[in-house]
Amino acid sequence: FAQSDALDRFIQHLKGIARLIKEDPQIQDFLKSIREHIERAIDNPEIISSEEYINKSEALLKEGRSLANKYQDKKLFSPTIEEARNLLDDIKNDQMVQLLGDRISRLSQHFTITNAKGQTKIDWDVVSQIRSLIVPFLIQRIKEVPVPNIQVDDKDYEYLIIQDLFVSIASIIPDHVKIHTHNNLDFNVNDLKADNVNTQLNVKIEGIKPEFKDFYFSFKRKGLVDLKDEGRADLFVTGSGMSI
Known about the structure:
elongated, alpha+beta, single chain, 7 helices, 4-stranded antiparallel sheet, two-stranded antiparallel ribbon, 10 strands
């Protein structure tokens, strides 16, 4: 598939259709009507079954067929459909794609179940069991992560040095991770490209309780009375922990 030129030919045909749409006001008006018709249904789902909406849908379908017949002799749409079929055949027959599909299929069998109605769903019990096995395994193998040394020299401290700092992996696994996404896509039909794509991702991590054990510290604080100390210490974040 990687060596096939079917994708290039398909893209060239799409560009030809895009030029056709751009040069024909009738097609542009038709596509605008389609978009507005769909937006009406999204904003007011109850109108879908109304006689007026059904009649409008049939009129748009008839107009679309008329436009297709108008350009039938230009031999533009049929080659595009043919190249799309060739492209799909290349993907389907590619050995690497087949091998990947086979492996994904076999892997998915271990994570899915089929109910009495023949519906296949994710087996969350298996996923939970795997998580309960993998997470402790990783924690056991990678118990601590080193943190770079800290050295401060500012208006408050003549020096502040922290060394041998390690954070426990088990302690930085949060209690909760909340993820919220919002997507907005504005697709330009004339140019076959997205003029505006916005994705907003909000992530909130709660209950991080890091532990730093047996690190070295040394400091000298500026002031009327010099305060300095050094030694080794442990630092624990308790309670509800930290949130990001």
